[in-house]
Each structure stands twice: as C-alpha cells, then as structure tokens.
Design goal:
Beta-Lactamase, five-stranded antiparallel beta sheet, 126 residues, 3 helices
C-alpha cells in the first residue's frame, strides 16, 4: 500500500478516534498486518487490545466465508467493551472498540462513514 494511501487512511482512523466513545480502532489486514493510530488510543485494558490485534487474523476466515453473502458487521460484547469488525473486503476490516454502554446509533453512522471513506481511499491509484 503506497504511503500516500496509508497517510489518508491514518487521517480517517485518527478522526474516528477523536470521538469520545471510540476507545481504539485500526484497519486490520489479513496476515496480522494493518494500520493503527500511534496516538489517541483510549482503551484502558491494554491486554485486551493486544489480544484483539493478535487474533484479528482469525476472524478473516469467517469474513471470507460470509463476505459474498453481504457480511456487514461482526459485533463482540466483551464485558465493558464492544468490538465492532466492519469488513471492507475479504482482506481488510475496520476494527473499532467502544464502551458497552455507548450510543450505538450515533457511532454506527460514524463507523459506516469511516468505512466508506477508507474504501474510497483504497480504490485510488497509488
């Protein structure tokens, strides 16, 4: 992925992370790679964030199988946190961590907008 595209994606991730209820986010890529903001991550449970980064690759098996059926979101409720995985393609997903009691209606719109912007950026020629 060219640096200009990475920078544009990072700007979108940083913008999403500025929302009060977004504790962490990243663009996950199959193969344990991805882009994540270097600053602004607000999740207090560092072990959970590390575990999510390490295991996200396993979710791509599910995404690959269901993407052609219109898989739009995978949501995991983990105690105090809700993890949202929004696939952009069979190989890329937007991963967002929010508090379990967050206003999902507002965040859902913001996550969808970010997902669309990142998808658009990824389609641009490098």
């Amino acid at each position: 992925m060219p640096d200009t595209i990475k920078e544009s994606i990072m700007e979108e991730l940083q913008s999403l992370l500025r929302l009060d209820d977004v504790l962490a986010c990243m663009l996950a890529k199959k193969g344990l790679e991805g882009l994540l903001p270097q600053q602004g991550i607000k999740i207090k449970n560092v072990e959970l964030w590390q575990l999510l980064k390490e295991t996200t690759d396993k979710t791509f098996d599910i995404i690959e199988r269901f993407f052609s059926y219109g898989l739009d979101r995978m949501v995991f409720e983990l105690g105090d946190y809700t993890v949202i995985i929004a696939p952009l393609s069979p190989d890329f997903s937007l991963l967002v961590v929010i508090p379990s009691l967050a206003n999902m209606g507002l965040l859902d719109v913001e996550i969808e907008n970010t997902k669309r912007k990142i998808k658009s950026i990824m389609l641009q020629p490098g």
